[in-house]
Every structure is written in structure tokens, then in C-alpha cells.
Amino acid sequence: MGYAKLLSRAEQGLDAPLVSVEVHLAGGLPTFNIVGLAAAAVRESRDRVRGALATCQYDFPVSRIVVNLAPADIPKHGGRYDLAIALGILAASDQLQCNHLDRYEVFGELSLAGELCAVPGLLPACLHTYAAGRTALVAAANLEEAQLPDNAAAIAAATLPDIVQLLVHTDSQGRINAAAKSRDNSAAKFSRNNNEGSDNDDIAEIVTITAANDAAEGVASAMKHTAANEDAKCEASARGNVAAPDAAAADDIDVSAQRAREHAATNATTAGAAVASEHSAANGTKGHAVTESANSAANSTEVSAAITSQNAAANGREKFAGKTAIRDCQASTAEGPDRNVAKQSAECAAPAGGDIRDVHGHDHAKRALQIAATGGHNLLLSGPPGTGKSLLASRLAGLLPPMRGDEAMSTACIASLLGGGSSTAALHQRPFRSPHHSASAAALIGGGAHPRPGEISRAHNGVLFLDELPEFPRHVLEMLREPMETGVVHIARAQQQVTYPARFQLVAAMNSCPCGYIGDAEHQCRCSAEQVQRYQSRLSGPLIDRIDLAVVVPRVSFSTLQRLPDGPTSAELRGQVVRARARAMQRQQCTNAALGSTVLASWLNEGGPAIDLLGDAAKRFALSARHCHRLLRVARSIADLAESEAIEPAHMAEALSLRVILSGGA
User: Fold this and answer.
1) Looking at residues 568-595, what average pLDDT do you find?
2) Is the pTM of this model over 0.90?
3) Which of 95, 581, 590, 661 could join 594 via S-S bond, C-beta 3.0 to 4.6 A?
4) Are 637 and 581 a contacting pair, CB within 8 Å?
5) 25-38 burial by CB neighbour count: b if 16+ within 10 A, else e?
6) Cα–Cα distance for residue pair 317/430, rounded to 1 Å
């Protein structure tokens, strides 16, 4: 009879409730049962675990095995419990001698060959794990995702024998004896059988990341040195100077990594843990910091957990720079906007979606795009077909500033839930989602028997572009109204209720009538007034009222197309956007589009020429209270772009000019 208990976490939206994986071995007829509201994929782990243990040459107990996933009222899905069940069976049968399993939370799916596979939804679970002060045991394929948080404490391995050996040689403080104990004969045999043709038959990939360890001063020094160099380059980029070549940046990272190794080899006598084979050092770009150098191994009993080899620095400089960016973006805005402006503008040196300068003409629409990017405002582009509405919308991604640390982490959690994983290279790039107009309500909003995030959550902290807006089913569009106001979406099912973030920026494009040529000077509209009314009425008044900017995109003349592209580039406009948004963040700690009604009411109460102009427009056009508030937010963004402390009448006039009401009565 034997008993073992390990910890894991279930998946409930962005929440990750703790799950105890209890394994009990008892006498009687050999059976293997899993209880605790386990879905089909969880119950199938019986065969995966049995096959993996047999392949790795462990003894499968010939007894009555009961695995309890507690609490029993939480649904369990997927293969994330495979590794915990396997380790529990080994511990209960005395094949794994480890008396501190309660310090870990285990996530990983097992193949029949004993390899650890990545699981979706790992990042939200790891955030809860680190907050509880525990270490995450994950697959090597999930390592980069597990180490994204600043307080990461994760152990990753490629196979089941690797993780067993790691636990055997880890003490109660989570430290690994780096000098020790190679794998036993059966594990080594398994490694050789599964790596035929490999030049290295040692331990495959065992990587430990302990970012919170105080002994990782060498890496912290290297990152600080790299951040200082990046600051200088970013400031030059923000002023329009030519950016430093990539080779120079690579040299800086190599120098920083070398300093980190020297510092760690001299001073690090106790650290979190990092063990990697030569094979992992040659090919392991999976981890941000993996390899121990020969000098460090000789001089330290336990090697600091974040030492980057020269090869990893050369091949993974994007990851190294991305980790630095997390800390930069989480710095307080109280230091002033100017310090953070250059850093953020350099994070996305290449404009996503193309350069706005390549779009001929449309200066009015380009200005609207810049204002929308500054304040995070919703935008509607209308006009004849072929005038460049979709092209302009795609250029918005290149104007948006990179995400701050908290924004990047929440967006990465959504990507993790959907199985896309997360990487430091794309951590601060805002999402740009463009679903087809045939998308269902569940696809756009989220849902399903096991509720999953929809497109509005995938676009969290980014852009949701709806092309051919009236072609979307009306009931689907009406579902956008609440998330556009609250920034979250609540999905309720009979057995489960989840809440997903949905703070997206809506950008839509449409024709003004079925034929598309109403108001076009070159083509005559063939639609009747009734057809135009019916077409535009597909968009309800409450939905249109939630759009801050509505701009008509007219036809561009042939002579304009003949001219070479001119005007500011996306990088130049983005620099202005970053500086304007930094001022807003310093003033109110949120974007202008997210300003609350209390702040807006105080501005209205103060009065002034700009407020008087807004009042006249509200009376003349019968504007709603929501519409007035949105115009005030847009005017505040225009004032930020103009570096003005107060909203002037010119700013309010421009905001009013950028809000064209559709003739259909919306």
C-alpha cells in the first residue's frame, strides 16, 4: 500500500484553481481509475502514463491504483495532469525518493515514449504557482512561456526520466547538486534508445530557471548593461536618427553575457539551479538562460540559474532583449514620459502591417489613425470600394506603442489558453485580429461547451478589425456593445462561468450603400433611398454611438497615385503617439479612451471655450451623453499630440470634424 500527493492546477478561464493529484496503491485486483470530474482526455491519461512508464523501464505497480483529482467539483480537461499522475505512481511505489514534492506544481502531457509535451494554458497557471511561492515543473517546450513572469521559478525537462533525476538530486530548498550524479543505467539506456544518431548521449535537457534568486547578480548586471545601451539607441531612434546596426546590438549582448558568466563563476556559490548537457548548450534556444560553463561548474557546487552561454546569446538575443523590455515597461511612469518614450518606440522598430507612408493621399484618414492610436479610440472608415479603407486599417498596427508589462502579460495569458504559446520576442507586440464577416457569435465573443476566448479577447490590448462591417450578422454585432464599454466579457454556461478580458480597439470598414458609390463624384449610386436606409440600418444606433471616430475615405485621383509616396513614416508617427500616450499615462494612469465618467464630468464642470463649443454641437446635433464623453476623450488625445495641457477650441473642433454621422440615421 502506498500514497503520494502532488499539486497541479485546473483551467478555468484566466483563473487556475489548485488541484491535488492524489495517488493511492492498494491490494486487490489490478485496476487503474481516475476520479474527480475528469473529462475524457484526462481519463485517457491512464494509457499514456502506463505506456510512458513501461517505455522508460519503470515498474508499473500491479495493484489497485486510484487517482483522485481534488476538489471533485472542478472540471478537469486536457493532458496537463499526465506528469503529476506518473510522478505520483512512482512516488507511491517507492521508485521516486523525494520528500519535498509539495514544493512543486506539475504540468505536462506524456507521450508513450516518455517525452514531455507542451500543454495549453500554462502561463495563467504559472502566475498562480509563483504567487503561491512554489516552483513549476514543466515540459522543455513550455519553458520559454513559463519564464515570462519576472518572479519565474520553473524547472523544465524533456523526458520523464530527466524530471525524475532532477527531483532526486534536488534538496528541499530547490537547489540542484550540479557536480553530481548522472542518470542511472535504465535512464541512460532510455536516452540512447531515443536519440539514435545523436552526438551526445548524456542527460537530454534539464533546465532550471529561478529568476527570483538573489544569487543571479551576474545576469542582472548584464541585463542592466544591455538596458543602458538600448536606452541610448532608443533615444536616438526617437529623434529620427539612424538606429544602430544589429551587429552592434549582438556584440553588446555577447559582452553582457560574458560579464555575467565571469561574475557568476566568481561569486555564485549557492543559487537556484541550472543543469544542461552539451547537447542542450549547442541546440538549446528553448530556454532564456540554460548552460553552465566549464569554469562555473568547476568553481561552484551549485550554479546560478540564469547563465547564458555565448551560443545562446548569439541565437537568442531577441529573448534576452525581450526580458529586459518586461522590466523596462513595468517601471513606474512617475519617472516621466521622456525616459520611457524612446524605449517603447524602439521595441517595434519594423512597423507591423506595412508603412503608412506607402498609402497615397488620405491625409485626413491618416490623421484619424494617429489620433485613434494615441487614445485607443474606436474608428470607422467608410467610403467607395477600392479607396484604401482596409489598407489604412492595416497600418494602424504600426502606429501603436508596445504594450506595458501588465498589458503584455494579460494578452500572453489569452494566447496561452488558446495553445498558441507565448514568447519574449512577440511579448510586447499588440495583437491585430481580423475575423471574416461569416464569424459566428461564439467565434467573435467566445463560448462553447467549455468556454474559450473569442476574437474580442484575442484582440485584448490590441486591434479588432471588422472589414465589411454591415455584412456581419446584426445579432453578432450587438454582442459587442457591452464589451466595448466594460472591457470584459462574461460567458455563462450551465456548469461553468468564466470572464475574459476584452479591452480591444475596434476599427471597422464599410461601404456607405449596397453598391458602394453613394457620395462618389466619379460613379453614380444605383441604390434607392430605401436600399441605402436598409443597408445602413444593419448597424444599430447604440453600436454607432460607441464609435469615437468616423471618417469618409474618398477616391484618390490618378495624379496622386503617380506621385512618389511622401509624408511621415509609421516610425515618425509612432514616436509622436508614444510621447502623447506617455503624457496621458503619467497624468491619469490610463489611456484617454478608458477615462471614467467622473474625470470627464469634472472637465465639463470646469467649462471653457472648448466645452462651450461641445455644448453647442450637442444641442445642434442632439448628441447623447455617451457621445459627448467620447468627443471629449478624442479632444484630449488631440491635445496630447499637440503637447497641450488644456483642451483648446481647435482640438474640440477637430474632434467634431472626425465624427461623421451616417446618413442612415445611426
Assistant:
1) 93
2) no
3) 590
4) no
5) beeeeeebebebbb
6) 20
